[in-house]
Write a structure and sequence with these properties.
The structure holds two protein chains of two kinds. In chain A, 44% of the residues lie in helices and 13% in strands. By secondary structure, chain A is of the alpha+beta class. Chain A has a four-stranded mixed beta sheet with strand order 2-1-3-4. In chain A, strand 1, helix 2 and strand 2 (52-55) form a beta-alpha-beta unit. Helices cover 30% and strands 26% of the residues of chain B. Chain B has helices spanning 4-14, 46-57; strands spanning 19-24, 31-37, 67-73. In chain B, 28% of the residues are buried. Classes of the chains: A alpha+beta, B alpha+beta.
Amino acid sequence: MSTPEQQINEAIQGAIADNEVILFMKGTPEAPRCGFSARSVAALEALGTPFAAVDILPDPRIRQQLSALSNWPTIPQLFVRGELVGGCDIITEMYESGELAETLGVQPPGDAPDAAPVASEAGAAAPLTIENKLS
Amino acid sequence: MPTTDELKLRIETTIPGAQAEVVDLNGGGDHFRATVIAPEFAELSRIEQHRRVYAVFGPEIGGPIHALSLVTRAES
């Protein structure tokens, strides 16, 4: 019988394994609840890359388990092909240097701004919720 | 409540040869930005550089230090 913590841990690992690009964030891409999460969503959306998103706010254990797993204390956290890419600062730096598009394997659209965008637009990717994985 | 001077001192005394600049982003004493330059960063990936700075504060990150935005590099 696994504990709720183990179930959350397994759901997080499953979500990371199942989604090539996945952002753990506060709020959703449509309604981010923190400026750092909003900025990370905006960078991914400016590159036009589809991504899964998990809102960590509904249960504090999601963040505890995620940070234990990733050895990364803050939110957001971006994973690409199972690897932690970083938080908002690294996402922003890599966006501006072109490394983020490279890591994601996408060509930045012609209208992508050079500086990491601040404003968030409505996301096309459906947010994945950890609750769904646990039900 | 942590101060920018305290954060700067703790980074500089924990990471050998580090120079840190810390600003309080909103004046509230819980959202900070630190620019950290340290020789050992030359050997570390960007993720590892950030982990090294976060490790200075351990569980205080996400607690009293609500947010610590980082810029790290090996050379000034």
